[in-house]
Task: structure prediction
Amino acid sequence: MTGELKIQPRPLPGMSVGMIGLGAMGAPIAANFATAGQPLVVSDAQPAAARQFIDAHPGWATEGGPGDCDVVVLSLPTSDVVDEVVLGDNGLIRALRPGSTIVDMGSSVPARTRALAAAAAESGIAVVDAPVSGGVARAVVRDLAVMVGGDTAHVNPIRPLLAATAREIIHVGPAGSAHAAKALNNLLSAVGLFASAEVLVTGAKFGIDPSVLLAVLNAGSGRNQATETKIGPHVLAGTFDSGFTASLMNKDIGIALDLARDCGVDLDLGAALGQAWASAVDVLGPHADQTEIVRVLERAAGVELR
Result:
């Protein structure tokens, strides 16, 4: 995008928007906001990331503190980081005006989001959780699914902003409910990927060409999101670049399992998946793509799918 690009009126006219966190997901989401015509005040723990974003979006992004913003969007890795940014000594809860809204688009712990919303409400600040599903590739083309948690009075005003990066927006319920839904979604996604990898490795051990077995799965009742969008382009092609790390998925699996435990629900399959996934991450390291889970199963079986 250049300064001369003709764009639509800003999604939130008359309101100022801040963006904290310009990582793998935060940067394309922020770019979608800017492209839609929303000027942004951006910041990141890595100053170079903020400068790079500003250089890429001249006239639509400036660097600075978000204290004067009406809406501040967070794209941060953990609840610990969110709490520090919002509740810390120099946190948003002290900088923002009453009536402002904080939008947490990361994958945070649902119970902590509820607590954060309660603490912010005491200062007249709303907290909306709006985690996304779709990964980096869909973020770039504004095709994310956004789950939203919070009071309707706080959610509806920011819908036009979220629509700039989303294919679908689903209001799940009160604050924290969207983070719960995201964690449960990712648990199921991880089950599908791990189970698909086990099936393909077993088929390869038997002598079935992995691409042929994958075609069988996608033509039959075994097809799932992993077989349709991950196994072919990222595993069989050997790229292993789905844009989401195995360690981040491990974090979300843990959130979902903790949520089930707190609700008094025993997840036999989920618990087994959690143990297997955590063990695989220990082998792969913190930066491995989620699709590299297949490598661990390949090594154990003595086969390779590519």
About this structure: The radius of gyration is 21 Å. The chain has two domains: 17-174, 181-301. Residues 17-174 form a domain with the Rossmann fold fold (CATH 3.40.50.720). Residues 1-7 have pLDDT under 50 and may be disordered.
